[in-house]
Specification:
Layout: H1 6-17, H2 25-40, H3 44-56, E1 60-65, E2 71-76
Antiparallel strand pairs: 1-2
Length: about 80
């Protein structure tokens, strides 16, 4: 996986957070990969690797809201160990 500069990392986190609420987890994940792919002008494989790296390092995390309709979004992790 190509390494990201701190600025690119912050841009990737912003792109995920800016997706807002989505109706399914699958949609949240696929739109997350698509957002990174568009941001970096990269292949799906590279975008998935960046997406996975951000999640593994806990720079972003999934949040859900239960109610009449369950929905999901990305948020920056509170206890993050990275630079986002």
């Amino acid at each position: 996986m190509p390494s990201l500069t701190p600025e690119e990392e912050a841009q990737a986190c912003d792109a995920l957070v800016n997706l807002g609420w989505l109706e399914t987890q699958q949609g949240l994940h696929s739109e997350g990969v698509r957002a990174i792919q568009e941001l970096r002008h990269s292949s799906v494989v590279e975008a998935r690797a960046v997406f996975r790296d951000l999640r593994l390092r806990k720079l972003i995390e999934e949040q859900s809201e239960m109610g009449a309709q369950t929905r999901f979004r990305w948020v920056r992790s509170h206890g993050r160990r990275g630079r986002c």
